Amino acid sequence: MGGMSLSRACTALFFAFVANSFAGDVRGSAIPEDARFNVMVEYETPDIVRKNVRLAMEAEYATEQEILDSLKTVPKGGYIYFQVKTSQIKKGFPRKLTYSLYDGGKKPIFKKTAYDTEAVPSEQRGVSNLMVVPVYGHPKSNVMLARVQARDGMETLDIDIPVR
């Protein structure tokens, strides 16, 4: 995918509620393995997206006009990828997650709810894209906020995304 790889820098644990017997224990080891959920966020700059589009189109022997037409469709702010390791997605136990993206304000510029079982494989082996968000305008702030919520906002994970 290229771009600034926030997957490694902003990997965070996203916890589901645990049994009452663990309610007072906040250690990571107290949370059952099947309740852990690692959400990663990756930002792909518009320059990297344009470069990848150009390379893909040239590999298909597209004309320069076709390449220019494709480059016009690249979002001005690039893409934000909400990702998870494919092995964490349990087909029989879907997680309903709400994805939000904030650009310095209190209102989200993007918000959508989807199940983790709707994830699609990414270009990285063993990683699936939960949500791919095109950022149509130039980011107003230097750091955007990605928020993932489960159980109607009762569980929230905030991840800072440096965009400049």
Describe the structure.
By secondary structure, the chain is of the alpha+beta class. 16% of the residues lie in helices and 36% in strands. A hairpin with a 7-residue loop joins strand 4 (96-102) and strand 5. Helix 2 (46-59) runs antiparallel to helix 3.
The CATH level-2 architecture is identified as Sandwich
CATH class: Mainly Beta
Mean pLDDT: 78
- The total number of structural domains is 1
How far apart are the termini? Answer: 18 Å
Identify the overall geometry.
globular
Q: What is the N-to-C succession of helices and strands?
A: HEEHHEEEEEEE
Largest sheet data: 5 strands, antiparallel
Keywords: Signal
Signal peptide: 1-23
Which helices and strands occur, and which strands form pairs?
Elements: H1 6-9, E1 12-15, E2 36-44, H2 46-59, H3 64-71, E3 79-85, E4 96-102, E5 110-115, E6 120-121, E7 127-134, E8 143-150, E9 155-162
Antiparallel strand pairs: 1-2, 2-3, 3-7, 4-5, 4-8, 6-7, 8-9
Helix pairs in contact: 2-3
List keywords for this structure.
alpha+beta, 3 helices, 164 residues, 9 strands, 5-stranded antiparallel sheet, Immunoglobulin-like, disordered N terminus, 4-stranded antiparallel sheet
